[in-house]
Amino acid sequence: MKNPNQKIIERIRHLENELYNARRTILSLVSDELQTVVDSYSDCISRQDVSDWQLEVANKVVLFAKIDDTGRTECPLCHSFGSNLYSHGYKVPEGLLRHLTGFGRVNQCPVMRHINGLAREQVDPEARIDLQALKLAVYGT
Ligand SMILES: [Zn+2]
C-alpha cells in the first residue's frame, strides 16, 4: 500500500501535467495567424522576457482587431466583448490592451493569462511545484 503522502505528490504531478496540457490545448484553439504571434512565448528565457513578451504580444494582437464604427472590438484571442453594460466591445487600443495585459484592475483575457502561464513556467522553475522540496517537507529526509 502506498504512503498517502506519496499519493498527494503523484496527484500534484498529475494535475500539473493536466494544467500544462489544457494550456497547450487553449493555445491550439487560437487562429493560425495569431498562434504564430502568441507561440513566441517559447523564446522567453527570463522573467523580464516574459513581461516584455506579454506587452509586445498584446500590441500585436491589437493589430488583428476587427474594429466597428464605434472604435470597439471583440478580443481576437478569447472573442469576448467585455462586461461593460453601456458599450459592446473593447475600445481600441486602450481597452483591448488592458484586457490583454490585465492592467488597471481589469480581468485579464483568459487565453492570454494561460499562455502567459506557459511562459512563466518555462522560465521560472518555482512556478511548478518543487517535488524535492515537497518530499523533504512531507518525509523530513
Ligand atoms: Zn480576450
Descriptive overview:
By secondary structure, the protein is an all-alpha fold. It has one domain (4-139). 56% of the residues lie in helices and 3% in strands. The protein has 6 helices and 2 strands, in the order αααββααα. Zinc ion binds next to loops.
Please give the structural blueprint.
Blueprint: H1 4-28, H2 32-38, H3 47-62, E1 72-73, E2 90-91, H4 94-101, H5 110-123, H6 131-139
Helix pairs in contact: 1-5, 1-6, 3-4
Q: What string gives the helices and strands in order?
A: HHHEEHHH
Largest sheet: 2 strands, antiparallel
Radius of gyration: 19 Å
Q: Main sheet: which strands, in order across?
A: 1-2
Average pLDDT level: 88
Instruction: Give the number of domains.
Output: 1
* Through-space gap between termini: 20 Å
What does the overall shape look like? elongated
Say how many strands there are.
2
Helix content: 55-70%
Secondary structure class reads mainly alpha
The residue ranges in which pLDDT falls below 50 over 5 or more consecutive positions are none
What compounds are bound to the protein? zinc ion
Number of helices: 6
Strand content: under 5%
Features:
141 residues, mainly alpha, two-stranded antiparallel ribbon, binds zinc ion
